[in-house]
Amino acid sequence: MRRALLYALLAMAAATFIYPFLWMAATTFKPATEVGTLSLIPDHPTFENYRVMWSRARVGRALLNSLLVATVNTTAVLVFGSITAYALARLSFPGRGLLLGASLAALLVPGQLTLIPTYALMVQLGWVDTYAALIVPYLFNVTGILILRQFFLQVPRSLIDAARLDGMGELRIIFTVFWPLAGPPLAMVGLFVFMGSWNEVLWPLLVIREEGLMTLPQLLTVFRMGGAAGPGGLAVQLAAAMVLVVPVVVAYLFLQRWFIESMTGTGLKG
Amino acid sequence: MRAEARSGLLLAGPYAAFLLVFNVYTMLFAVALVFMDWDLVTPPRFAGVENVRLLAVDDRFWRAIGNTLFFLAMHLPVQIVVALALALALDRPLALRSFWRAAFFLPVVISGAVVTILWGAVYATDVGLLNTMLHRVGIAPVPWLTHPDVALPALAAMFTWRNVGFYVVIYLAGLQYVPRSCYEAISLEGATPWQRFRYVTLPSLKPQTILVVTLSTINAFQIFIEPYVMTGGGPLRRTLTVVLYMYRQAFSYQKMGYAATIGLALAVIIFIVLAVQRRLIGKAEES
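YS: structure for the whole thing
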């Protein structure tokens, strides 16, 4: 009896989190007359909302922009982050302690403090309305570097010595000795950087004005604010949101354990 | 050894340069901007402490701070109670355990841009999900986002929905480390389940609670997209947040100096609020 009650409560809680997404998906296939209904199966299914969304906003282009920016940022963070983390973990050089201290300090600074000056910097560099503004400020990720460094510290010294004896340079050691061992931390860092980039709205809103360069979350926001979905455009807005959300949900279905570990393990959220 | 130092400098150099530009320079720039008047077009003009003086008496800024504190007063207790309850429910042998956890966590992985559109649809007055449900049971539609007394609590509820799964996972991880022997000891003394929770579980989860309070507070002070899209900071500025106000000063009025002043003040206020919370949690421990 108590177990049944527990499962009923869990099911209700789960429905609270899942039902809105199902309702959203269903609504995008409903004609205008059915939008205000709760049913999850449209009586007269239609693709009209998607057609209107596609014709009014450059969703395809924004999707490509988002993919490009997220992929470049993730690759950069993993490659440059590994190189940096290796130096911080395994090489002694002057200023290493200072650099570590500065990294920890950088984590304490709220992003809003540097938001305006970073934007001003983009203006001075002439990077507003360029991909550079979406990419360069994200080339390194402090959290990612600290996580990778922590892992690199555990790699046995003998492995590095053996690689050196084989005449390997530092870069080859990083990518042929460390990387094959570092699957989990690399995946963890990569996933949270990708998700952070994929979901980010505020920064693109600041530095991108031209529609052809907008990322998908930004386009969604602009689309919704500008009323471009038209009157009674709720279903059209939701259709646009589906384009952003479906790839994430599909990936999440298969990799949920990774998502949860990556996002809670870094203590940061998208 | 010399070679090692050289390659170390070479490999870590780009990162050092990055930190120098995007952290050190921007931070110094932020402080300098506090004393400047700048519209990004004409050269910056020295303004002395004018920005600080303005901020001290700026009703809208303090309204935004007040809104955030009120938001936290509603959001924090609810979030902690719901996250704890769900974590405790999951912390036992259950069928579909990872399914439940994944379901609670689902909103966490979704972009704020989507959440605002989805919840715009949930809260819509005429065809919204919530009002349609209320209509079914004979309750008149509620103007969720357009009534001055309802809008901020509505945003707080949405925020709890969006983030609670994250904290369920945090609490679940914490529950693994509650020593079983403590449960056994207190059960032997005839403690009720509530006493067991109050004197063993809750104190053991203190580090997780501090994390929940800290992260939620930082997040709350950085709220932007939700009021920007859903309410525009209204009605009657009841949902105006600090970052939204900063954004407007910078991009609607081109007041970079004033916007940077808001950013700096925000950082200081976050630190003060976090320090006060730590004190309060410490005090709660003693009593």
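YS: worth flagging: The first strand of chain B starts at residue 36 and ends at 37.
IM: good catch. Also The mean pLDDT of chain B is 90.
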